[in-house]
Write a structure and sequence with these properties.
Helix content: 40-55%
Order of helices and strands: HHHHH
Strand content: under 5%
Mean pLDDT: 78
Radius of gyration: 14 Å
Structural class: mainly alpha
Shape: flat
Low-confidence stretches: none
Number of helices: 5
């Protein structure tokens, strides 16, 4: 939730990267749904569990920030994806950018 709030405040302050036009947005949605169908067949676009990490990466990328993954692929799928310490200091990171 906090990461999404950061993205939204950036959006309303016009600090994320340039928003694509309608065609670009539709292409991005189609690409995201295709990715999700490959990794989680039959999900119908519903995102949950370890797949939330990918969504977090997308939000960070939109804000021009690097991913904050644990570095251990096994841990990515076994540990909670929304642990608060992973996004600690996000305000400082955004300010420094």
């Amino acid at each position: 939730m906090e990461l999404t709030a950061h993205w939204l405040t950036g959006h309303f302050r016009a600090t994320p990267r340039t928003t694509p036009g309608e065609r670009g947005m539709r292409e991005a949605i189609d690409a995201r749904l295709a990715w999700q169908e490959r990794v989680l067949p039959g999900s119908g676009g519903y995102d949950f569990g370890p797949y939330d990490i990918h969504c977090a990466d997308e939000l960070l990328h939109d804000m021009g920030l690097p991913s904050r993954r644990a570095g251990n692929p096994l841990a990515e799928y076994l540990l909670p994806g929304g642990v608060a310490h992973r996004y600690a200091g996000l305000t400082r990171s955004r300010s420094a950018k």
